[in-house]
Write a structure and sequence with these properties.
Blueprint lengths: L26 H25 L10 E4 L6 H8 L14 H8 L13 E6 L3 E6 L4 E7 L2 E6 L4 E4 L10 E4 L15 H11 L3 H4 L6 E6 L3 E6 L5 E5 L10 H14 L5 E9 L2 E7 L5
Parallel strand pairs: 1-3, 4-7, 7-8, 10-11
Antiparallel strand pairs: 2-3, 4-5, 5-6, 8-9, 9-10, 11-12
């Protein structure tokens, strides 16, 4: 039995196509390998730099600027770089060192701009400090402490060091505990500032100099040189007897001295009701 034949027409020039198969590209894999190699190379280079002695702090390589009161030794201690430490400057955390410097009593720690620490490769560290400005010498016993306008005790003057600032001798018992870095009472520093500006010429006095004192019994006092006279300004408090009273007391003292400075031993200055206070005459004075 024969089967029927079917004709299949094939057009010339056309060949049945096979389905295409997508092949993975080698591009992305190669780029990832190259990136990994570059990263490893960078890490190796960074390790080499951080471990290299070429970037170690040189002996004497700390350049301290502006630390006139603080001193270079105190700056080094605050940085933790005293002794023979020679850290690698390439990886040194200068921001952390700047924060450490702001703990010094001679700088205002609330102002970040007063300190600067920067690296000068290959082996130097530059430290800049803007210190507080002292206005008085606050003397307690043999210690002479510089104090600024905010009452911060900045530093103790070395023995034999001189200062042109006004000196206040604090004889109060509790003041023996005062230490560098502490703050004086705001009223005390305000009165000290005002009295420190008083000169013999302002009072019309023939005294060669004036000395400020502070005691538990009499409070603030001005003493004329050569034991000429003593003026008691008293004890102050914010609510009862504020520092602004000093200006009137200075005017009263000048008036008393104008009436006969040589006759006054002690002047008690309590201006009230048009009166300046009273004074104790010297023995034998007319």
């Amino acid at each position: 039995m024969s089967l029927p034949l079917r004709r299949v027409s094939l057009r010339r020039g056309r060949v049945p196509s096979r389905p295409s198969i997508a092949r993975a590209s080698a591009g992305p894999a190669a780029s990832r390998v190259l990136a990994a190699v570059a990263l490893l190379a960078a890490a190796a280079a960074l390790y080499g730099v951080s471990a290299s002695p070429a970037f170690a702090l040189a002996p004497g390589g700390i350049d301290v600027r502006g630390a006139m009161l603080t001193g270079e030794a105190a700056v080094r201690r605050a940085l933790g770089l005293d002794g023979d430490l020679r850290p690698n400057l390439f990886v040194l955390d200068t921001a952390r060192l700047a924060v450490a410097l702001r703990t010094l009593p001679t700088v205002d720690g609330e102002r970040p701009e007063v300190v600067s620490v920067r690296v000068a490769l290959p082996d130097r560290l530059i430290v800049e400090v803007r210190e507080r400005t002292p206005i008085l010498v606050w003397q307690v016993g043999e210690r002479r402490l510089l104090v600024d306008v905010e009452g911060v005790l900045l530093v103790s003057l070395p023995s034999g060091a001189t200062s042109a600032l006004p000196v206040l001798v604090d004889q109060r018992r509790d003041s023996a505990r005062l230490a560098v870095g502490e703050r004086l009472d705001p009223v005390d520093i305000a009165v000290g500032r005002r009295l420190g500006a008083v000169t013999p010429a302002l009072l019309g006095s023939r005294a060669s100099r004036l000395t400020m004192r502070l005691s538990d019994d009499d409070g603030f006092m001005l003493l004329a040189g050569s034991a000429l006279w003593r003026a008691v300004f008293g004890i102050y408090a914010p609510s009862l007897r504020g520092p602004e009273l000093v200006d009137a007391q200075v005017q009263c003292l000048a008036s008393l001295l104008a009436g006969g400075e040589q006759a006054i031993a002690v002047a008690y200055l309590y201006p009230e009701g048009g009166r300046c206070g009273t004074f104790v005459p010297k023995k034998g004075a007319p």
